[in-house]
């Protein structure tokens, strides 16, 4: 197999998760090399990645002589290698999908840095702060509106890159949130995503790993 995806530790690497999901969902064959991104070995392992991929980060996909780095580039490439169904054919819906993808990819909110992907797997999780609840409301209101307007079951109708981009974010939020009654469509959408073979495969492995504890979680 000349196609190799370098991913990260499965309970710590949300960006690698997204790229991996797009390849799986498009039935693209690839070999996987898991890079241990936990400290203290993180720096040394990523230095090895930097020898062939300028950002020195995961994910990175090697396909023959092409080196494709950054989750979003890999997701788009996976879609093109596959049947292209992860971006809608309708131009406006496609632009909407790309807006959602770009929103997540460019930071989304203050939610992700403090509510790390790693923390989704902690046995003893803290309650969300008031700010985190406010950010969740803002985001979930958007999801609820999109699921209603586009008719579901996914954000823009059929499964798209936008859904896959948000999977790790949903996992972070759902593992910490308390009362989600206001967002019934969003809950159904989350359950549907979590039931997919691709998501299950990654998560089953992630849940078997020892938790990666980060500083600042309880501050
Ligand atoms: N924008 C990049 C972010 C990738 C990223 O931050 N990956 C983490 C692991 S999930 C990493 O390798 N960080 C090391 C670094 O950026 O130096 C992408 O979307 O792929």
Can you walk me through this structure?
This is Glutathione S-transferase family protein. InterPro entries: Glutathione-S-Trfase_C-like, Glutathione-S-Trfase_C_sf, Glutathione_S-Trfase, Glutathione_S-Trfase_N, GST_C, Thioredoxin-like_sf. This protein has about 220 residues and is an alpha+beta fold. The chain folds into 2 domains: about 5-80, Glutaredoxin (3-Layer(aba) Sandwich), CATH 3.40.30.10; about 90-210, Glutathione S-transferase Yfyf (Class Pi), Chain A, domain 2. The chain is built from 9 helices and 4 strands; from the N terminus they run βαβαββααααααα. Strand 1 (about 5-10), helix 1 (about 15-25) and strand 2 (about 30-35) form a beta-alpha-beta unit. Helix 1 (about 15-25) packs parallel to helix 3 and helix 4 runs parallel beside helix 7 (about 160-175). The chain is globular, with a radius of gyration of 17 Å.
């Amino acid at each position: 197999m000349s196609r190799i995806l370098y991913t990260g530790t499965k309970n710590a690497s949300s960006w690698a998760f997204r790229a991996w999901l797009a390849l799986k969902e498009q039935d693209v064959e690839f070999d996987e090399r898991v890079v241990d991104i936990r400290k203290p070995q993180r720096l040394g392992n990523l230095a090895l990645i930097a020898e062939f991929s300028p950002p020195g980060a995961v994910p990175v996909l090697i396909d023959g002589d092409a080196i494709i780095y950054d989750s979003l580039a890999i997701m788009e490439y996976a879609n093109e290698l596959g049947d292209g169904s992860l971006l809608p054919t309708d131009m406006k819906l496609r632009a909407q999908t790309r807006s959602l993808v770009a929103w997540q990819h460019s930071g989304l909110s203050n939610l992700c840095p403090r509510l790390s992907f790693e923390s989704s797997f902690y046995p003893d999780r803290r309650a969300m702060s008031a700010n985190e609840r406010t950010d969740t409301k803002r985001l979930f209101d958007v999801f609820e509106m999109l699921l209603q307007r586009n008719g579901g079951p996914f954000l823009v109708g059929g499964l798209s890159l936008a859904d896959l981009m948000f999977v790790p974010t949903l996992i972070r939020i759902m593992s910490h949130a308390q009362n989600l009654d206001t967002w019934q469509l969003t809950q159904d959408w989350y359950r549907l995503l979590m039931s997919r073979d691709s998501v299950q495969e990654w998560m089953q492995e992630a849940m078997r790993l020892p938790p990666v504890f980060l500083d600042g979680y309880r501050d």
